[in-house]
Amino acid sequence: MKKQLTILAAITALMTACTTQKILTAKAQGGYAFKPQTIKHTPSQVVNHGYWDKPAHLTGQHCIVIDTALQQADYYVGQQLVGRSTISSGKAGHGTPCGTFKILSKDIDHKSSTYGSIVDANGNTMVADYTAGQPIPEGGQYKGAAMNFGMQITNTGIWMHEGIVTAAPESHGCIRLPRDMAQVFFENTPVGTPVIIK
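^ that's the sequence the OP posted. Answer follows.
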């Protein structure tokens, strides 16, 4: 019951933050202004927006709230917002599921079992964009796409991990974060942490 109340408090805090605060200035890492992005960027215009400012003494239930409309992930400890990152969630046809989940497992150098490339014996790319089930050319072998700092959200292949972030839906359903934010989320998130996706 206490855990449910904490999660509800986190949602309430998120709603308040979204409606009353258009720009959030971080104190951490020299500080800079963060504003949710609504314009899609190309992979050559990747974004790296985020911050982390968790006081050393702060304790409480960890909770990650992902807003697919704003393309951002907010990190709470107790009722305090301590981090925020721009994301790229699932694109059309590969939507990110909404609901309440939890971190099932973590893998710092996870590789996709569904998406990747086909390489030859020397590591040269034969097929750049491969999906499991497609034919593999003779002499080729599957190389799963890197999903570093991976945190498993569902048993159906949805993970939060490092990836190309354009502040627009781009993934096959996973939650991509810029490298720095993927790392800090990974390092501070225990298995079992609630994840709310809306």
